[in-house]
Design a protein that fits this description.
By secondary structure, the chain is of the alpha+beta class. Helix content is about 30%, strand content about 30%. Strand 10 and strand 11 form a beta hairpin.
């Protein structure tokens, strides 16, 4: 995404605290990073308490004197509340350390459980966007378009699309009106259109002046996931060099002999030269094609837009 490619540094922000930062990092990280981080923290706590036990290995019944291995094993058993019975605290010092370690293990497991639940409960949007915007003519009017595709098997309900443009040296943010900003549901793909008419802040936008007028185009999509019964949000941004003028999106759909329709997801970025005399009507704009190859049923228009 173009926002991620930009080098943006925020300064003067108040600190949110180490715990909040760690929580956000674990929630947003991949599962591999999450498991690696929790394993490292687990070993760190065990090793830290093992050093405390190592100061008095004679206070651990069944442990060898000055054996860090036994101290580490005893710490692991105490932290995980396993307690095989081969080793047990016998001195007041070791008993006090085990109380503290048990408290840490309870807090650690509670936090870990909450983070795992939060990671599973956060809905993962199955919505992807085209890498570029295109500019052509829509019913004789210059238009700006981008394409989005629902890659999940479930429909997205009550889809609301918002698009803004950051304009000029002052970076003024203007909201762009969209032809199909609200869709009843989105089963597959949709081309979203903004008309560059007299009411548009980007009227007169061309390939010659786009880099001077537009700093960033931002897209926000909100929809309801029918499986998780939760509201999902997706964002996408385009920089000025990611707008292709005189182009239109190629058709992603293919109708087979049996009447079923196949959506080729790998064509989401496919574009072709647009004809100014015969402007493109979004082939999937605001419509969802049902009865795909998997279901074998006939195609049907889903949400209010042009079917093609």
């Amino acid at each position: 995404d173009s926002l991620e490619r930009r080098s943006i540094e925020m300064r003067g922000l108040p600190s949110r605290g180490l715990m909040n930062e760690a929580y956000v990092y674990l929630i947003t990280s991949s599962w591999l990073v999450f498991i690696s981080a929790t394993l490292c923290m687990y070993l760190f706590f065990i090793g830290w308490f093992a050093l405390l036990y190592y100061a008095d290995t004679d206070g651990i019944a069944g442990a060898r004197t000055d054996s860090f291995r036994d101290a580490f094993v005893f710490s692991q058993q105490t932290f995980s509340t396993i307690g095989y019975g081969a080793m047990s605290p016998s001195s007041s010092y070791v008993q006090a350390v085990t109380v503290v370690e048990n408290f840490f293990s309870i807090v650690y497991v509670a936090i870990l459980t909450g983070v795992i639940y939060a990671k599973y409960s956060v809905p993962v949007p199955r919505l992807i966007f085209s890498d570029v915007c295109v500019s052509n003519f829509e019913e004789g009017v210059p238009a700006l378009q981008f394409r989005m595709l629902n890659t999940g098997h479930e429909r997205l309900l009550n889809v609301k699309v918002t698009m803004t443009a950051t304009i000029g040296e002052r970076h003024d943010v203007k909201r762009l009106s969209l032809v199909n900003d609200e869709l009843a549901f989105l089963a597959h793909s949709c081309v979203v259109t903004h008309l560059l008419d007299e009411s548009s802040p980007l009227q007169g936008l061309t390939g010659m002046n786009v880099s001077e007028r537009v700093v960033l185009l931002a897209v926000s999509v909100m929809a309801s996931d029918t499986i998780l019964q939760k509201r999902i949000e997706c964002v996408k941004s385009y920089e000025s060099f990611e707008v292709e003028f005189g182009m239109r999106f190629s058709n992603m759909s293919e109708t087979l002999r049996d009447g079923s329709v196949v959506i080729h997801a790998n064509r989401i970025n496919a574009i072709e030269t647009a004809s100014t005399s015969s402007p493109q009507l979004a082939e999937e704009g605001g419509t969802a094609l049902e009865g795909s190859k998997a279901s074998g049923g006939p195609p049907a228009a889903a949400n209010g837009g042009a079917q093609g």
